[in-house]
């Protein structure tokens, strides 16, 4: 059976690298386009805050259901077909999320939307691993940087459209058209070879090295989820920042992460994966400790900036490590690792809330800093 590893010349072409960047851009745009629509969906469906929170769980549930299956689908049908399927469902879901007005319909659509994001997310990372391996140089950070750029562009485009008086449907229509254009640009150069062999399992539970990488990804995604969901509250409560300005911490974190990933390939190629991962996660840990223990608003904001820049290249390095391991087939390994890591964003913030209720938010953030030190301590093993 033909595998992606048997196509190094095709995978290393400049056109294939650009096509991979376009897919990461599509995923970022599609995922972020939903965020500005949330208040409109809440009003249309007459939802309370609690009901909205419950409804949003369906998005994560859809992703967690789809991610473990994506490795098998890529093995049978190839990256291109799986990414095409996910992109089509993103295009179908966004207009529905902009217009539906019943909780049941919104919940069902959010689950499909989450599954679509999960399909594209895992398949594009499998493609990115193969493209990076064929190129012989670090490229993963740059790919993830385009996902971050897509997130900024998707949320920004919809928000701008709404601010200019467009209806939610027309605002997401602009985004959908952008996704179609990017897909038409990239689809000719995406990898489509099957990975599955007749005697290979369709799905295996993560084990050994892959499970270890998944746990480290959980910590990294937990860090991102903590800043996203609890960063503003931390700044408001402990640094008495006005609520209108409390989101500045996450904004600085996001900008730093985007810049870090767009420059990450050069950093990795110059310093190597070990130093990049070790120093990066150490920087992120120190950033959290700076925000927690120095009683200054500027220090806290600088801390969030350090967390974003320090952790920016850690997850891409984990995907590269998953692509180079021999414990499991690459497609199944990335699928499993992504699922475990993504649980950090979904379950992590709830866990933080539970611990903070018994201790304090500052204590919980300190615990995350310690976990990041554990990732730094593992850097040599991960990158050897």
UniProtKB/TrEMBL annotation:
Subcellular location field: Membrane
Protein name from the UniProt record: MFS transporter
A GO molecular function held by the record: transmembrane transporter activity
Pfam families named in the record: MFS_1
Membrane topology: Multi-pass membrane protein
InterPro entries: MFS, MFS_dom, MFS_trans_sf, MFS_Transporter
Domain Major facilitator superfamily (MFS) profile stretches: 210-384
Gene3D superfamilies: MFS general substrate transporter like domains
Chief localization: membrane
PANTHER family in alphabetical order: BYPASS OF STOP CODON PROTEIN 6, INNER MEMBRANE PROTEIN YBJJ
GO terms under cellular component: membrane
SUPFAM superfamilies found in the cross-reference section: MFS general substrate transporter
Entry keywords, A to Z: Membrane, Transmembrane, Transmembrane helix
UniProt keyword Membrane, yes or no: yes
UniProt-listed CDD domains: MFS_MosC_like
Residues spanning the membrane: 22-41, 53-75, 82-98, 104-126, 138-158, 164-185, 206-223, 243-262, 274-294, 300-319, 331-352, 358-379
């Amino acid at each position: 059976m033909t595998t992606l590893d048997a196509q190094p010349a095709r995978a290393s072409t400049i056109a294939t690298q650009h096509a991979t960047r376009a897919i990461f851009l599509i995923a970022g745009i599609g995922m972020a386009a939903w965020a500005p629509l949330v208040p409109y969906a809440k009003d249309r469906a007459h939802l309370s805050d609690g009901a909205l929170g419950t409804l949003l769980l369906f998005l994560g549930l859809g992703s967690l259901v789809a991610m473990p299956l994506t490795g098998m689908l890529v093995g049978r049908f190839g990256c291109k077909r799986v990414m095409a399927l996910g992109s089509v469902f993103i295009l179908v879901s966004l207009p529905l999320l902009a217009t539906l007005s019943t909780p049941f319909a919104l919940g069902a659509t959010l689950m499909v939307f989450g599954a679509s994001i999960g399909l594209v997310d895992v398949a594009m990372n499998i493609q990115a691993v193969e493209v990076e391996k064929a190129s012989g140089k670090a490229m993963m950070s740059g790919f993830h940087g385009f996902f971050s750029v897509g997130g900024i562009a998707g949320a920004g485009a919809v928000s701008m459209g709404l601010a200019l008086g467009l209806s939610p449907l027309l605002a997401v229509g602009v985004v959908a058209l952008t996704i179609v254009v990017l897909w038409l640009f990239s689809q000719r150069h995406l990898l489509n070879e099957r990975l599955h062999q007749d005697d290979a399992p369709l799905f295996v539970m993560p084990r050994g090295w892959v499970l270890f990488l998944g746990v480290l990804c959980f910590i990294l995604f937990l860090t991102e989820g903590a800043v996203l969901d609890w960063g503003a509250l931390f700044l408001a409560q402990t640094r008495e920042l006005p609520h209108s300005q409390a989101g500045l911490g996450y904004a600085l974190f996001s900008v730093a992460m985007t810049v870090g990933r767009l420059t990450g390939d050069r950093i990795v190629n110059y310093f190597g994966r070990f130093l990049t991962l070790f120093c990066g996660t150490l920087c992120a840990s120190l950033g959290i400790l700076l925000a927690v223990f120095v009683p200054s608003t500027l220090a806290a904001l600088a801390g969030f900036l350090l967390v974003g820049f320090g952790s920016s290249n850690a997850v891409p390095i984990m995907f590269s490590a998953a692509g180079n391991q021999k414990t499991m087939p690459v497609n199944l390994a990335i699928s499993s690792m992504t699922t475990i890591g993504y649980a950090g964003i979904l379950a992590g913030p709830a866990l933080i809330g539970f611990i903070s209720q018994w201790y304090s938010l500052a204590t919980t953030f300190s615990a995350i800093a310690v976990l990041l030190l554990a990732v730094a301590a593992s850097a040599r093993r991960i990158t050897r």
